[in-house]
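#struct-queue
[09:14] JT: dropping the first one here, sequence first, then the structure tokens:
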Amino acid sequence: MKVRRSDRLIDMTSYLLDHPRELISLPFFVRRYDSAKSSISEDLAIIKRTFNTRGLGRVQTLPGAAGGVQYLPGVSQSGATDFLGMMALKLAEKERLLPGGYLYLSDLLGNPTYLRMIGRLIAALYVDQQVDAVMTVATKGIPIAQSVATCLGVPFVIVRRDAKITEGATVSVNYVSASSSRIEKMELSKRSLPEGANVVIVDDFMKGGGTIHGMHDLLKEFEAELVGITVFAEATFAGQRVETEYTSLLNVVAVDTHASEIKVELGNYLDKLAAVTSDQA
């Protein structure tokens, strides 16, 4: 039974969004909608143009017998700027200040609308690279990792600070927390990562970078390759960060506990996105 173009466009768009970075053959859509290959190609051209105009990512077609169509998640520079500006204002709300100078992030990282956009922002940096998994440490980094992994169409793995019997055999490393100078331990199940996997590390907040450095060391135990590091927010750190190559969406420049003031600026994300977009062009 043939499907009308309007219905076809909606269903095809939904399918592409649900299968990011997956190469889908044109004959698959021909059979799915009982339509001519030329009609499917015209539909894909419409979707491609709309995605590009709206800053939703790229739809690219690959010619040949082994070719097909592929959706690569992305975001426009203006869309990223507007969203991060809004996030910076929310993060600077004085009600977020907790005892000890900590910031409350759970409402932001628990909002599914924000998380979807955060996932797209981070995924846009790595969409053209070989990524096999997204790694984070329990607990607040989990929703970010899940969102990024969904956009990239790969699994996410969780590093824990305490062993879980349900994880089976684990690999552990000791690391120094740069902010507290304490030696701590983190563990990852041996079944979580295949040897030689290409991994993106994400986290919610970074001060000295000790936790992220520990995850980096853990990757070496699995003989895995680090693709990149991205954090939702970084904070000004007086000492020497143990990880210097990273991307941050936001930068908490100053926290005044007496005046209950938080100064937040945009991180280096927009510069990294501009470089990636330039390479794509």
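[09:21] JT: and here's the second one, same format:
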Amino acid sequence: MVIFSPRVRILLVSSEVAPFAKTGGLGDVSAALPRALRALGHEVRVVAPFYQRVRTSGRAFERVLPPSEITLGAHRYTFSVLASELPGSDVPVLFVDCPALYDRASIYTEDPDEHRRFALLSWAALKLCQYQQWAPDVVHANDWQTALLPLMLQTVFAWDRLFERTRSVLTIHNIGHQGAFPASILPDTGLADAASSFHQDQLRGGRLNYLLTGILYANAITTVSPTYAREITTVEHGVGLDPFLRARRDVLFGILNGIDPGEWSPERDMRIPFRFSRDDLANKERDKEALMSAMKLPYVRGVPVIGIVSRLVWQKGFELCDAVLPTLLARRDVQVVVLGSGEGRYEELFARLARQHPRKLAFHRGFSEPLAHLIEAGADMFLMPSRYEPCGLNQMYSLAYGTVPIVHATGGLADTVRTWDARTGEGNGFAFEHFDASGLAWALGYALETWNRREQWARLQQNGMRDDFSWTRRVRAYEELYRAIAPG
């Protein structure tokens, strides 16, 4: 059987790459995975859109593809490709520059051409390979925005021998976002000649689903935790795509995301005022004092602080907080710090609680990278009551900083957080099984009881800080997968 040489050529295409453009975990993964693959000697190139925020970032870019034209349906676009490097590595990041589609204030929009914005990204990625005569062993697509790539390789680019050994991987970071559009947009994908390859029942029903198309044609499908890989094959969590995922279960893999210890380590983090380690946690208390000052709350030694850093959206389960936190704040010695923005109902929830308990809860609307790091370092506990969570990264950051996570046992949260067992001294956090107010109340109560047993709490922190969630371990699973789908 023929397999890849030790050096694999990987083209990773993503709508986000940190630090250039990021709204969540996708941006982090699209930077950390290529960096980890390159560290193992693989040849990796990343393709992403040249958004307005990238254009105005002040970075230097080199043009590597001159202006080219592409027709998508009745629309003609001119694009070029600019290159930079992923910070901390020599991995090239190749930005598709098409001002007509990407020069906007937001990464994602509700504009009527959203389907064309990301169809062009996929076309441009493969055309760049042709221009440079660079044959990837693997094209790694991410989420619906690039999910047309597997079909493109098997249809409109199949004539080109450059891609005859190229295989595709599609990673589903969140199955709730599918890129579902009216079937009338088919010509705008540039794939009208491959219309018979799209899901015909869906087309007849007036729908075209980018993510489904990728699921049907990718050589391998991954998602970002083993538990989530099982969950999305169920009616409850599959968001309508579970029958197709069950049909392709033999090529569906759950690979837990990792974190970058260069970015998230209490020993090396330059965004926190005081660094500390598993062997010496003394400075964590000083970071807690700095956090209270930053959030304009009184610092009270011996009172636990619960941190929240999150998008404030339905997925994250914050309606449970509305049912539990008022009683907790009224009856217990505890403080809460919240950083995030999103749906108005959740923003108002935390704003109201801050007004009602001005010495116990503080809410910073928006996002701040330095404050996110300070919360991870200075808080004693970290709350993630997500309704569902494909992987989650904040619970891993928290464990690295000795900040004990309290989570709903779903997806990657179930794979990373093990409930503390006082009898055995095992566990690294608190996970509640049932997504309801009583489940969250139980987990918070158990955490606060354990907090009062200082020796147990110290053991609990040590357990979490020993866990290794670095990409150094995770990247091996991708190596094995890339080799497994090699042509025979």
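[09:30] RK: nice, looked through the second one.
[09:31] RK: The first helix runs from residue 25 to 39.
[09:31] JT: good to know. The chain has 18 helices and 17 strands.
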